[in-house]
Amino acid sequence: MNTATLLRKRLEQPEILLIPGGGSPLELRLIEQTGFEAAYVSGYATAAARFGEPDIGLCAYAEIEEAVHAIRRVTNIPLIVDCDTGYGDVANVVRTVRGMELLGVAAIQIEDQAWPKRCGHMDNKVVETREVAVRKIRAAVAARNYPDTLIVARTDSRGPLGMQEALDRCLLFKQAGADILFVDGPQSLEELECIGRELPGPLLANMSETGLTPLRSATELQEMGFAIALFPSSTVRLTIKAVSDFLSDLKKTGDSRGWVDKMASLAQTNTALGLDEIRAFERQLLSGS
């Protein structure tokens, strides 16, 4: 069973799906090792972790394809990939969907921002017209070579055009064949509840810490009607904070000993990177068994 089929079947279950995200092979590998059922390749986190850039449209299709290829080499769980706007109009969306399918991606997210897009929790977002937005979702649905591949339709229209426009667009996306609906940037608990009440599922809720949307637990989001609780960039922001704090202290003291208990040991790091499996494979091969 491929990962798209696994994810589709999982979403048929009543329990909410808790999905963390990241932008590097190491983050996604750790997510899988921790036992999560799926993972999210975040555009924000990819720009940050892989390229050291902000999420303002600097990473296009080739960069995302390269990042997903590296992640897919070291993970097996279903991946939802943030493919921004599809990187153009219909032809670009078709290329994006089919390219992600070739990499074994389970779900492909397309949003309605105009390019260059920006993080959904930044100011001054601009969205495409309804006609263009719906056309691209329709193209994504039609482009699939594997019927179980899921299309996540995201709208960023809440900020510039209001909640009602966001709801209306999601209904149009559903009519166009989208599998999962995603309103980014709701700004209150009441708006989260409205999304859960007014839109057909499965619905995705984005919990971006210190962003526009109030944080809620997966259990609370399930009670509101959401099927996916997404924590898209928590890992990369934890990394920035922890590494920055360590480097500041190292520069000040010239001594890392106070940090050893906060680090993975060399052995733990090697295990997380898969060295044990590689060594076991080598032993089996050399033994001739």
Topology:
Elements: H1 3-10, E1 17-22, H2 25-34, E2 39-41, H3 43-51, H4 61-73, E3 79-82, H5 90-102, E4 107-111, H6 130-143, E5 150-155, H7 158-161, H8 163-175, E6 180-183, H9 189-198, E7 203-206, H10 218-224, E8 228-231, H11 234-253, H12 266-272, H13 275-287
Parallel strand pairs: 1-2, 1-8, 2-3, 3-4, 4-5, 5-6, 6-7, 7-8
Could you walk me through the main structural features you see in this protein, from its secondary elements to its overall organization?
The chain has 289 residues and is of the alpha/beta class. The protein folds into 2 domains: 3-239, Phosphoenolpyruvate-binding domains (TIM Barrel, Alpha-Beta Barrel), CATH 3.20.20; 260-289. It is built from 13 helices and 8 strands. The chain has helices spanning 3-10, 25-34, 43-51, 61-73, 90-102, 130-143, 158-161, 163-175, 189-198, 218-224, 234-253, 266-272, 275-287, and strands spanning 17-22, 39-41, 79-82, 107-111, 150-155, 180-183, 203-206, 228-231. The chain has an 8-stranded parallel β-barrel, surrounded by 9 helices. The two termini are 28 Å apart. The mean pLDDT is 95.
